[in-house]
Amino acid sequence: MPDLFAIIGTFLELSKEHPLDLTVWYHPSAKWSDLSSILKRKRHLVHTLNILWPNTLYKAPKETNMWHSQRYYTAVSTILSTCGPLRDLRKLTFDYNVAFNRQQFTALHLPACTRILSNIHLSPEDLSTDNMTVWPLTAISTNAPIGHVVSTLGSFPHLSYLEFEETSDSEHDISHFPSLPKQPRHLRKISFNRSYSRGIESLLRLLAPQIAHLHLWMSSQFADLISTLRELSNLRELRLEFSLGTPESGSILESGVKINSLQVLEIRTPYSATDVASNRPSIHIATFLWALGNLYPRIHSVSITGFRSILILAREFFWSLSTVDSLSLKSFSRGSHPTTITLPTLSEFNLDNPPALKSFDMPNLHCLQIQNVKFSNNIRNIGYRGLYRIFIQAEEPSGLLFLRPEEYPELSEVHLELDGIHYIWRVTSLPHLVLITITSRTFLNPQGNLQTILGA
C-alpha cells in the first residue's frame, strides 16, 4: 500500500509557494496529528478549505440536520486546532447545508479574510440584535420572522443568498419595514419557502434594485405580486411555486412597464392543486401568465410543471415568447381541441406528453427531450428534420424503438433511458450519428437488458 502521507508531502513540496486548496473527507479516525505535521509548513498557503461527507454510499441529507452539522463543525475545529491557524484562508465550504450557532463561530477564530460559501442555517436566537456579530457568511437560511432578519442584515456584509424557511408565525400584518441598518450590497438571490405575505412584499420593494434571482411560494395574490415584480428592474431568474386557493379580489391592470433582464422563468404547482377542480383559479392563472409575458418580453428559458390545461390557459403567454429558446412542460394535458402554438425561436423542448408535440410548430427545434414514450408512433412523423439531439425516456416495460433515417437526417446524438428489460432498438442508418447513450432503471441481467437488431 502506498504511503499516502509521503505522497501528500511530496506534492506539497512540488507546489512551492502556490496557493493551496485543501479538501478533507472527514472521518473521526483520521490521523489529524500526522496530517498537521505535514501541513504546518504550508498552512500559510491554504486559501480554500472544503469539508466533504466521508461516505460516498451514504450522503448527508440536503436539508439541515443537527447531527451532521456537529460532525462538520468538529471537522473544521479539529483541522484548525491541529494544523494551527490558517491566516490566509479565503474560502470555507461544506458539501451540504449545516447549522452553526454564534458561539461555534466565535470559537473557530476564523481570520477576517475568510468567507463561508455554503448555506448556513441560523436560528432566530442567533440573529439576535443584542450582540451585533459580523458574520463571514455569503448564504444563510432561517425560519426567523422577516422583520427580525431585516433588522440584522447589517451583520452580514458579504451576504449574497438569503433563504426564508417555512414558519408558523403570521406576518400578514407587517405593512412596511424601517430603512435597512446597512444595505447588503452583495445580496442578489432571495428564496421564500413560505406563503406570500405583506412582509415578503415589503422586503422585496426594499431590495428591489439589486434582486437578480427570486423564488416565491404563491397561493392567489396575483395582482399584488405583479405590482411588486414591476419594481424588480434587474431580475434575471424567477421561480414561482403555487398552491392554488381561492383567488383574492383585485384585477391585474395593464402597465407599460417592460423588464428585459429576465432570462429564466420557472412555474410549478403540486399535482393535487391543479386547475382541474375549479374554473375560477384557471381564469386567474391565465390572466397572471398573460401579465408575466407582457412584463418580461425577452425570456430565454421557460419551465412549467403541474398545470393540466396549460395549453389552453397560456395561449397568449406562449404567443408572447418571441425570444424563448428553451421550453419545458411537465404534467399537462393536450386537451381535446388544442390550438397550434408557434414558437419560431425555440431550439430545445422538454415534455412528458408525447401526443402534445402535434400542438406545437417549432421550425428551429434542435434538441428534443421526451418522456413517457410508449410506442415508436410517439416519435414518428413529428416533422422536426433539423433535430441534432434527442432524449427518449421509454416508460413501458417492453417495446420497439425505431428512428427512421428520413425523419432524422441531421441527428448526431441519441440518448435512451429505458424502464424495462425487453426493449428492442432497431438501429438504422443515421449518417451524422456520433454518440449513443443507453441507461436503464433496472439492473443488468447476464444477457443484457437491451436487445439490438441491426439493419434498416
Automatic annotation (TrEMBL):
InterPro entries, sorted: LRR_dom_sf
Gene3D superfamilies in alphabetical order: Ribonuclease Inhibitor
SUPFAM superfamilies the record matches: RNI-like
Protein name: F-box domain-containing protein
Organism classification: Eukaryota, Fungi, Dikarya, Basidiomycota, Agaricomycotina
